[in-house]
Amino acid sequence: MRNLPANLRIAIVCILTSLSGHASAEQWPTRVVKFVVPFSAGGTTDILGRLMAQRLSEEYGQQFVVENKGGAGGNIGTDAVAKAAPDGYTFVVGTRDRTSSISFCTRTSRSTA
Fold first, then answer.
1. Which of 84, 99, 109, 113 would be a feasible disulfide site paired with 90, CB 3.0-4.6 Å?
2. Distance separating alpha carbons of residues 14 and 73, to the nearest angstrom
3. How far apart are CA 37 and CA 93, in angstroms?
4. How far apart are CA 20 and CA 31, in angstroms?
C-alpha cells in the first residue's frame, strides 16, 4: 500500500474505518460492493474510484464495481446512493465540497418547520 498515491491511501483508510463496526457482526463483503461516481467516466473522481475498487477487490477477494451516474453537477449519483439500502454495499465516490453542499441545495433536505 506504500506505493499508492496519498489520496488513494486516505480514501481506502476512510472506507475501511467506517466499516470496522460492520465487519465484527459478519464477514464483509459477502457480495458485490458498488462505488457510485456521480460524474462521467474518465475524470479524476472516476479514476480514483476505479483504483480503490481494484485495490479493495484484490484485498477482500470480492468484486468492487464502479458505476458512473453523472448529471446535475453530481446530484443524480449522490441522490441514488442516499436512497440505496443502508446495508454497507453502496458508496459514493466524490469530493467533500460536493457531498456536503448538496444537502443545502436540494428541496427534500430542507426542514418544513
1. 84
2. 24
3. 5
4. 17
pLDDT by residue for the chain (113 residues), tens digit each? 567 677 676 777 667 666 655 545 568 899 999 999 999 999 989 999 999 999 999 999 999 999 999 998 888 998 899 899 999 999 999 876 655 555 555 555 444 44
| Contact assessment for residue 80 and residue 69, using Cβ atoms and an 8 Å cutoff | yes
All structural domains of the chain:
28-106 (3.40.190.150)
pTM over 0.70: no
Q: Which three cell numbers stand for residue 46?
A: 472516476
CA distances from 32 to 17, 19, 80 (A): 19, 15, 17
